[in-house]
Design brief:
Blueprint lengths: L2 E2 L3 E6 H7 L3 H7 L6 E3 L3 E6 L2 H13 L15 E4 L13 E3 L3 E4 L10 H9 L3 H26 L9 H20 L5 H19 L8 H13 L1 H5 L3 H14 L15 H6 L1 H26 L4 H43 L1
Antiparallel strand pairs: 1-7, 2-4, 2-5, 3-4, 6-7
Helix pairs in contact: 5-6, 5-7, 5-12, 6-7, 6-8, 6-10, 6-12, 7-8, 10-12, 12-13
């Protein structure tokens, strides 16, 4: 069996989880901080989109009792494996092997050909042209989810935040598409074509809804404002990106004219601190949703098939979340019962 390599991955053998992690593999899966959990017969992993989150969850493993040599920066209990452009393997372990796309437990064969999931994906083989158009569909979906996350998080009226807000949300998803796809092994021509057909679709969709005469220039300038963030904010770029997105979306209120920059105030940011956090949380989940969609399509799935895979994962995740919520609720009720009981005795 094998696991796919995403941006940054914490990989742990099953036998170590059963030995050291409280609750074993099942609890490790439930504790995954996002939707990017993988496992096979030998390994389990969390995947992240920045180094800051990796280090945060490395520290959590240490708190659970995992071994890590701070001086040499190595561990036999787990390992961090990033995509090659992000640094590759952080240290060597004798139980893991990998290539540029997948990793596998050394005692098991590299089953790219034997793994039924990978075999199925390889058998589909979309043409490059079809793949481009399937990826383009992701911009519409993710942009619409971002728009709804914004409306729900801040309890806003869609009559006040209409076409221009959705336009801005889709430009942000255009940036994320480019960022995520660029991490794959693609040609410059593929990337350029994908950007062209995706930005053209946005332009055509909003040409009659917005007052700007040349949306192409605006799309490019708005896109650049997002694309500058990863290089400036480094490993914590996502937080800066979501904060800028929040500001830009708020600046679209009651307007049909797209701008290069949307002004806001610090007072506005402070006033909605809780809603800001909620929006960032929802959009972080949306980013991981985007990652999974792109992975499926780049592996040969159609957009519709990728959605089915995502729906299956999210449905299962919601069931597990409800189970955890029910357990937590039961614990709270028991605690309240004993508190009241003790008060009655005194």
């Amino acid at each position: 069996m094998s696991l796919e390599i995403h941006f940054w991955n914490i990989v742990v053998p099953h036998k170590i989880l059963e030995l050291k992690y409280p609750g074993g593999i099942k609890q490790f899966k439930l504790d995954c901080p996002n939707k990017m959990y993988q496992e096979d017969d030998y390994l389990a992993s969390y995947s992240f989109m920045n180094e800051y989150d990796v280090e945060t969850y490395m520290n959590r493993l240490l708190q659970k009792g995992f071994n890590y040599d701070q001086k040499d920066g190595i561990s036999d209990d787990f390992v961090v494996l990033a995509m090659e452009l992000n640094g590759g393997l952080w240290w060597s372990v004798d139980w893991l092997d990998h290539d540029s796309e997948i990793c596998w437990y050394k005692e098991s064969p590299n089953t790219y050909s034997n793994n039924s999931n990978n075999s199925d994906k390889q058998g589909k083989k979309l043409t490059q042209s079809t793949q481009l158009y399937e990826l383009r569909k992701c911009v519409d979906l993710i942009g619409e989810i971002t728009y709804n996350n914004f409306i729900l998080s801040f309890d806003l009226n869609k009559n006040d935040f209409g076409s221009l807000t959705l336009f801005e949300a889709k430009i942000s998803s255009l940036f994320m598409l480019d960022y995520l796809v660029t991490s794959k092994n693609i040609s410059k021509e593929f990337r350029d074509n994908l950007n062209h057909i995706s930005s053209s679709k946005i332009q055509n969709d909003f040409a009659n809804q917005l007052e700007n005469k040349n949306l192409d220039d605006i799309i490019e300038k708005r896109y650049i404002s997002y694309a500058q963030i990863p290089g400036m904010a480094k490993e914590r770029w996502q937080l800066s990106y979501h904060r800028l997105l929040d500001i830009n979306l708020k600046g679209t209120k009651n307007s049909k004219t797209a701008k290069e920059a949307y002004p806001t105030t610090l007072e506005d940011a402070d006033k909605h601190l809780f809603q800001n956090i909620n929006f960032i949380t929802l959009e972080t989940e949306n980013s991981y949703r985007f990652v999974r969609l792109i992975d499926e399509i780049m592996s040969g799935a159609t957009f519709e098939d990728a959605i089915k895979v995502l729906d299956s994962i999210e449905t299962k995740s919601k069931k597990e979340d409800r189970t955890k919520e029910n357990i937590n609720s039961l614990v709270r009720r028991l605690l309240n019962f004993f508190i009241k009981k003790n008060k009655a005795k005194t």
